[in-house]
Write a structure and sequence with these properties.
The chain is α+β, with helices and mostly antiparallel strands and 686 residues long. The protein starts with 11 loop residues before the first helix and ends with a strand. Helix 6 (141-159) packs antiparallel against helix 8. The radius of gyration is 33 Å and the shape is globular.
C-alpha cells in the first residue's frame, strides 16, 4: 500500500507499533531548480542574544575557570568550537602554506626580554588607558570615546525618528563599559564632528584622546565620573626564566620574532634564495586593558602569521597577474583622514598601479586573504580592507592594511597585512652582530671604478705617531669628490687636512690615491618582510555571526549555515530505530564515511528525528543521512541538506559518493539534486 512519510515530530517507534504501517512503497522523482526550497535567512533580524544562547548551550566556547568566577579575556573552547577552529586552521594551511609553498615553523612562546627590547615591543607595544577619577576603574581610552560618541549619535537618530527604540535586554544591563543611548537631538555640526572623529579615531594619539574627553565631556558610562589623562599600558605579560629570576622574559604577543631569529636557517633551507615565506600557527598573549567583547578581545589567543621575505628592490610577485583583476573593498588612509568611511570598489591591479597599495606582494596577499575569508564563510558584503593611518601604524610597519569584518559590535580587525620593511632583521642583526642578510650571486658582475687611498703606514706612523689612526680614519671617510680633490693637491706636491683641531700635511710619500677597477659578483642585502597576521578567534566568532539565522516558520529554531569545509561535523547519521538490526548498517555507513575522510557522528538518541536534526542545525552540520527499515531491506538512504531541509534518496553507496563530493566542494546542492532523485515521503518495504 502507499503511505505518507512520518512527520519529524512523530517518533518511529510509536508509528511502527501499527502492523499495517510496516508495508511501505517507494516514490521518487528528480528535483528541478524550481522544486528546490527557497530559504529566507533574513526574515528575522539578527539577534545576538539568541546566538550567544546557542553558542553557550552547544558549548562552542565558554569563560575559562567559570566555576571559580572566571577571568575576563580568557575562554575555553568546547567540542564544536575546537573542531571549528581546527578546520579553519586546516583550511588556512591548505590555502596558504601548501598553495604558496611556505616553510612552516613552530617556535617558543616564552621569549627572553632582550628579544623584545630589541624589537621595540618593550618600549612601544602599548595601548592608551584612562582611569575613573573616583573609583579607579580602568577603561581603554579609544574604546571609551568610540562607545560614548556612538551612543550619542544613536540617541540623535532616535530623537529625529530615524531609529527605533532599542530593546532593554537584561544582558545589556549587566554588560559593563557600554554607554547607553539617550534620545537627545544634536546640532547638525556636532553630528558631523562626531562622525569625523569616529572615522579617524585610530589616528589619534593618547594626548589627543584626552583632549577629546575634556572637550566633549566623555565620562565613564557606568559611574558618570570624569576620567583622567590617558596613560600608556604595555600589553605584554612579563615573566622570568629559571629559578633565580635573573633572566626576565615575556610571553610572546605575536609569533613573528621566531621567524626573524631563525631567518638564516630558513634561508639556508631554501637554498639561499628569496623570495620565500615562512608560516606559523601558535598561541600569543596580550594583557588587554578591558577585554569585554567575547572572542573579539581576549588575553590568550591563537594566531596564524606569515613572513614573506622579499628583495627590497623588487617587491613584485610572480602570481600577481593571476589576481590583479580581483575587486576588493578598500578604505584608504586619505579617505579616513578626511572624516569619511566610504569604501571604494577597486581591482587590486588598479590599487597597486595608483600607489594606493604599496606593492604587488602586499596586493597579492590582500587578495589571498579575501579569498580565504570568503571560502570559509565570511559574507563578502561585510568585509573590507582598511589602511592604517600614520599615528596607528605599528612601529615596524611601512604600510599596513587590516581585513575588517562587520559584526554586532561594528567593524573588527581580524587580519593585518603589513609591510614591515627590513626593520626586524636589521635591529636583531645590529644587536647580536649576526648578519641576517641574503648573499645573491649576480647574473652579470657589476664593474665599477673608484679612487682608493693607500697610506705608507710605516712612514705615517713615524711622522704622526698616535694621530696616524685619526688621519687614516678621516681620509677613509672621504667621498669620491673629496678624494679626487685631494689627489689633485698631492699631484702639486702636498696637501693639508684638519681634524679635531689638528693639522696634517700630506705628501706623495705618505699617501697615494689611485683609481682602481672593482668587480662585484655578489650582492648583499637585508630583505624586506610582508606579513599577513590572522587572529583565528576573531575570525571564528565573526563567522558564527555571519552564519546564524532563524527558521522563517519558527524563530526558536536557530541555524548555523557553516560551509562544509569548516563545519565541525560534516554528516549526521540518524537511525530511525534503536533495533539491533540497524547496528550493522549504521556501522557500515560510518566506516565508509570515515574512509572517505568525512567526519560524521551518529545520533541514536530517543528524541524525534525532527529534534535531532534541529539540534544539529544549531551545530552547523550541513548534511544528514537517515537510515530506516527500507534502508535495511533495500539498502537505500536519504540525504538531507541543512538550510533547505530538502531530501534526496538513493542506494547507500551512491549517496556516500555524492556526499563525499559535496563535502569536498567539487559539487554543490543543486548539482547533487541532478545526481539523486528527490525523496517525497514514501518508501518501499515488503
Amino acid at each position: 500500500m502507499r503511505v505518507r512519510s512520518i512527520g519529524f515530530s512523530t517518533t518511529l517507534s510509536t508509528y511502527l507499533r501499527t502492523p499495517r504501517n510496516l508495508h511501505l512503497l517507494i516514490s521518487t522523482r528528480r528535483y528541478s531548480h524550481s522544486d528546490m526550497s527557497v530559504v529566507n535567512k533574513s526574515v528575522h533580524p539578527f539577534d545576538k542574544s539568541r546566538l550567544d544562547a546557542l553558542l553557550n548551550r552547544r558549548f562552542f566556547y565558554a569563560p575559562a575557570f567559570e566555576i571559580y568566577g572566571g577571568v575576563a579575556g580568557l575562554y575555553d573552547y568546547g567540542p564544536p568550537g575546537s573542531s571549528l577552529q581546527a578546520n579553519i586552521m586546516a583550511e588556512w594551511r591548505k590555502h596558504f602554506i601548501i598553495e604558496d609553498h611556505m616553510l612552516e615553523l613552530d617556535t617558543t612562546i616564552m621569549t627572553p626580554a632582550t628579544v623584545f627590547e630589541t624589537s621595540g615591543h618593550v618600549a612601544r607595544f602599548a595601548d592608551w588607558m584612562v582611569k575613573d577619577t573616583k573609583t579607579g576603574d580602568v577603561l581603554r581610552a579609544d574604546h571609551l570615546v568610540k562607545n560614548v560618541l556612538e551612543a550619542r549619535l544613536a540617541g540623535d537618530r532616535e530623537a529625529r525618528g530615524l531609529a527605533a527604540q532599542p530593546k532593554d535586554d537584561e544582558k545589556d544591563k549587566k554588560r559593563k563599559k557600554k554607554a547607553k543611548s539617550v534620545a537627545v537631538q544634536l546640532a547638525d555640526e556636532l553630528v558631523k564632528e562626531f562622525e569625523s572623529i569616529l572615522a579617524q579615531l585610530d589616528n589619534y594619539s593618547g594626548p589627543e584622546i584626552g583632549e577629546l574627553c575634556r572637550k566633549y565631556d566623555i565620562r565613564n558610562p557606568d559611574t558618570d565620573n570624569e576620567v583622567g589623562e590617558p596613560q600608556q599600558f604595555n600589553l605584554m605579560f612579563a615573566s622570568s626564566i629559571g629559578p633565580t629570576g635573573q633572566h626576565p622574559g615575556y610571553l610572546r604577543p605575536e609569533t613573528a620574532q621566531g621567524h626573524f631569529l631563525n631567518f638564516s636557517r630558513l634561508l639556508e633551507f631554501n637554498s639561499g634564495r628569496v623570495p620565500f615565506a615562512s608560516a606559523q600557527i601558535g598561541r600569543s598573549f596580550r594583557n588587554e586593558i578591558s577585554p569585554r567583547a567575547g572572542l573579539l578581545r581576549v588575553r590568550e589567543f591563537t594566531m596564524g602569521e606569515i613572513e614573506h621575505f622579499v628583495d627590497p628592490e623588487d617587491k613584485s610577485h610572480e602570481k600577481f597577474r593571476e589576481v590583479r583583476d580581483t575587486v576588493l573593498s578598500l578604505l584608504d588612509r586619505h579617505v579616513q583622514v578626511s572624516g569619511s568611511t566610504q569604501v571604494t570598489q577597486m581591482t587590486i591591479g588598479e590599487a597597486v598601479d595608483k600607489g594606493i597599495v604599496a606593492n604587488e606582494t602586499l596586493g597579492y596577499f590582500l587578495v589571498r586573504i579575501n579569498l580565504f575569508l570568503i571560502k570559509i564563510g565570511i559574507n563578502p558584503k561585510r568585509l573590507r580592507f582598511r589602511q592604517h593611518m600614520a599615528n596607528e601604524m605599528a612601529h615596524y610597519a611601512a604600510d599596513c592594511w587590516d581585513a575588517e569584518i562587520e559584526n554586532a559590535t561594528g567593524w573588527t580587525e581580524c587580519v593585518g597585512c603589513a609591510d614591515r620593511a627590513a626593520y626586524d632583521l636589521s635591529v636583531h642583526s645590529a644587536r647580536t652582530g649576526q648578519p641576517l642578510v641574503v648573499r645573491q650571486a649576480l647574473k652579470e658582475p657589476i664593474v665599477t671604478e673608484k679612487e682608493v687611498p693607500e697610506f705608507n703606514k710605516k712612514v705615517v706612523g713615524k711622522t704622526y705617531g698616535r694621530d696616524a689612526g685619526l688621519l687614516q680614519m678621516v681620509v677613509g671617510e672621504m667621498d669620491e669628490s673629496q678624494l679626487i680633490k685631494l689627489k689633485g693637491e698631492l699631484a702639486q706636491g702636498q696637501a693639508t687636512i684638519s681634524a679635531e683641531g689638528k693639522h696634517f700635511t700630506l705628501t706623495p710619500d705618505l699617501l697615494a690615491i689611485e683609481r682602481k677597477t672593482f668587480k662585484q659578483s655578489i650582492r648583499e642585502f637585508t630583505p624586506n618582510v610582508i606579513e599577513p597576521s590572522f587572529g583565528f578567534g576573531r575570525i571564528l566568532y565573526t563567522l558564527l555571526e555571519h552564519s546564524f539565522w532563524c527558521r522563517e516558520q519558527d524563530i526558536e529554531r536557530g541555524v548555523l549555515s557553516l560551509p562544509p569545509v569548516v563545519a565541525p561535523t560534516k554528516v549526521l547519521i540518524v537511525p530511525l530505530s534503536a533495533k539491533e538490526e540497524f547496528n550493522p548498517l549504521v556501522q557500515e555507513v560510518s566506516t565508509k564515511l570515515r574512509k572517505a575522510g568525512i567526519f560524521s557522528r551518529v545520533d541514536d538518541s530517543n528524541t524525534s528525528i525532527g529534534k535531532r536534526y534541529a539540534r544539529n542545525d544549531e551545530l552547523g552540520t550541513p548534511f544528514g543521512v537517515t537510515l530506516d527499515f527500507a534502508s535495511v531491506q533495500n539498502r537505500t538512504m536519504t540525504l538531507r541538506e541543512r538550510d533547505t531541509t530538502d531530501q534526496l534518496i538513493g542506494p547507500i553507496d551512491d549517496v556516500i559518493t555524492v556526499l563525499t563530493e559535496l563535502v569536498q566542494g567539487t559539487i554543490d546542492w543543486p548539482a547533487a539534486c541532478k545526481r539523486l532523485p528527490a525523496y517525497d515521503g514514501v518508501q518501499a518495504v515488503d
